[in-house]
Fold:
Amino acid sequence: MRFAIIPVPARSEIVAKTDEAQPQYKIEYREIQAFGTLKDLPLGLSDNARKQSVSILNQVLADTMMLRDLYKKHHWQMSGATFYQLHLLLDTHYEKQAELVDMVAERIQSLGGISIATPHDVAEMTRIPRPPRGREDVPTMLARLLEAHKIILEQAHEGAKTADESGDDGTNDLLVSDIIRSNEPQVWFIGEHLAATALQRAD
Ligand SMILES: [Fe+2]
Structure:
């Protein structure tokens, strides 16, 4: 059996001819607000207070994004007798940290600032040490998470005080009610797994 050769139409016949049907995606990228600047918004806060809060929150955001992703790394790379329990627990913590990321980023935008967003920003700004690409043992993974929580909590306590002094109650509330109050129980839950308790009596 022979196949009929279908003639290929010229490109001018394939591409829609009307401008209305054609998305104009070949555009020159344009920035409309520089990072570090503030929009003028009627929030009843001084520019200084907003600037200070945006800077604190962007640091908390970078570290929280890093912790969120550390949770996913360790969720994937978990091992050992408690694999299933820790695999699930770390994903629960990941979900909460992802929620916090969104809350902090949107608070920054509410203040008229610009939140960092990409992994490039996080890698440049975070103070949480970079883990290896390889897989670590369970105590190392858990200790790494606790270290990251500590860095975020210290920053949140300090930031909450600064926001309180400048009159930025919303940022103070976010740092206390969401960041501090969510990170503390996560430290508790992870920390308990590092207690040297035997599952059965050994003697
Ligand atoms: Fe998963």
